[in-house]
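Risk register update: the risk of archive-format incompatibility is retired. Evidence:
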Amino acid sequence: LNMAVPGYFRPEWNEEGQKQVGVSIEQLQERLGFGGLIFSPNKSRPSDKTFLEYLVRFASHEGILTSEHWHSMNQKLTNKAPQATKLCLGFHLIDYSHKGYLEEQDFIGIAHAMHISLVSIGISSPTFDFLHFGKTLFSALANGKAFITPEDYMKTIVKHTRFVKSLGFWQVYAVPTYTTEVVNCFSPNAVLLELKEPQTNEYLKTDEILQLMCGIELLAAYYIPHNAPNRKDAPPIDNDYITRAIEIPILATHPHTNTVVEYAPDVFQFLRSLVGIQPCDYIQSLGITGFMGNFILGNLALYSTAQSAGKSGSSFYTTWDERYLLKSIPQREANSLRRILPKLCSYFHNTPNTLLNRIYGMYEFNEQHFVVLENILDVPLPIHRIYDLKGSTQGRTNPTGEGVLKDLDLRDPFQFGANREQILQQLEDDTMFLESVGLIDYSLMVGIHDIEGNHQESRNVVMFAKSVKHVPAHKVDSGGMLAANASQIYFLGIIDYLTTYSLRKRSETFAKRFFLSESQQSDISCVPPAEYGYRFREFMNSFCV
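Archived output:
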């Protein structure tokens, strides 16, 4: 939680009029809103400990949590510290009594705290045997010993991180109450509400992120095998899809709720299955369960904000494991996605080698639309440069040389070598598809990892990745493609392809061409789909050798 927000630690006065320097658990619970519902739900027994009590015990001094104590814990959890440091934090979080070692009862206690939290928001079933989860985890880590030392914990927990992050809840979801509605993909009135346009840098608050995480998890839980079969065949390609919605409480003390709506859930579940994403994996990255399970590993696994390279004003978030991007999109892009969804689904189904950035979900929350995207740069190697290439030159430069570079900043051609024809053919197929559905303004994102002369780590990862079968040519080397001269690895993907060449865009083209000279008119970004695609392909042809 980002506790640096002013107000969480506002001064309090006791009955004697003395100023307090911290807040109590009760005061913190009241101020956390939905977070308070997760971390400090109502207890059935006074002896039960809530997860908030574990956090405060870990971070506080004599039961009072000062801003200094909380900020210190928050910094340790959120920084990209070494794994050993993170695991040490997890150990001390579980060690409620500060004994310096862990017993079976400690694991049962933390499992119970998380269990009552997830029951309070409708994720876990009240009948879940949290005792079994705690005992199983202790047994796996103890190796027959009566207690676990910090050294033992750090050595053994890494073998069971998947089990820890899932908290064992995959098969014991409560049965949520969903609301469904049939909408027409091609209708501009298909949305439930006329939603507001996102403002520049308008990011969700922490409380809202937690609600969205909860909603995404409950909606994805529909496809856990005991709730519904995992569809393997393509969904019907027609004009009508359902929306599925779930109510999320806002505050522990008030009956108000927020709604998270998922568009075409069956279609997006099918698109996720095409690349082997199981519902439990999707939940672990985007949901509340993975967020809480990561605490045991010393991680604060909230969505983190990311900077947008474009001018759309959209807000970007990355999941804690960086597998996915969550992006807010304006109403017109949401309409574009619904309009092309049947054809896009067929194209992804029939084109496994596509360079199009994959879309894994579309949601409505807090009067905004969000899409879940594949993170093209989620790779095991550092990225040294990033290019966003459209094939146009008008305004396409980054004069600072920092951050995302553009067309005019590209100096050296990409060394595709033997893969050149295959990559260019795939680019042609993808752009011809986008042209056929009337889309423009897309770009090719290229992330570059430089392989230094003695950088053995890069080469080891490359050789390991090549052993994987059925991987597209542009992803065969550590998720990317090795340059012909073996000096770089390229990570490629076509992004931002939801802009329809609408009347508004036609007007923009006309206005720019009216005021620009004839030599400049061909350089503008906003042009008809056929012209945009042709120019894009020509540019890529000239910069790929």
